[in-house]
């Protein structure tokens, strides 16, 4: 399994996906191979996919530290912890100064399972942004 196989599969699905979404994928050059996956209609929240020997990691960036209301930051963290259980296949993290939602799959996952993870992660991002908007400036 590699990002090129995933990209080819998702790009070829068209309107035949199991999730009802259409995907638009672009490999990103760099030291680590990364695939940018856009769900058509949700291009502002892409999912970035990387494949290691052990896992397929899917990450979506939510907002930067500079966008958080400083007075409400601690309460935002508490709310994120409470939301974390309710979000299937997804967890919160922070990469440098960016807050993210991520999910991981086995490299043995089927293309249908990858498609499902990407769809759920995208849905969860929309829910998180809606739920936590009051903590942002």
Automatic annotation (TrEMBL):
One family name in Pfam for this protein: DUF2170
Superkingdom classification of source: Bacteria
Organism encoding this protein: Shewanella youngdeokensis
Protein name: DUF2170 family protein
């Amino acid at each position: 399994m590699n990002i090129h196989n995933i990209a080819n599969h998702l790009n070829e699905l068209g309107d035949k996906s199991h999730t009802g979404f259409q995907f638009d994928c672009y490999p990103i050059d760099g030291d680590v191979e990364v695939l940018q996956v856009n769900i058509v209609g949700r291009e502002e929240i892409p999912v970035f996919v990387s494949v290691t020997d052990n896992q397929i990691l899917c990450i979506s960036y939510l907002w930067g530290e500079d966008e958080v209301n400083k007075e409400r930051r601690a309460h935002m963290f508490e709310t994120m912890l409470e939301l974390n259980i309710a979000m299937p296949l997804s967890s919160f993290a922070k990469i440098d100064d960016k807050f993210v939602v991520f999910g991981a799959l086995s490299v043995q996952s089927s293309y249908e399972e990858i498609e499902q993870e990407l769809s759920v992660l995208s849905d969860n991002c929309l829910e998180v942004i809606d739920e936590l908007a009051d903590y942002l400036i």
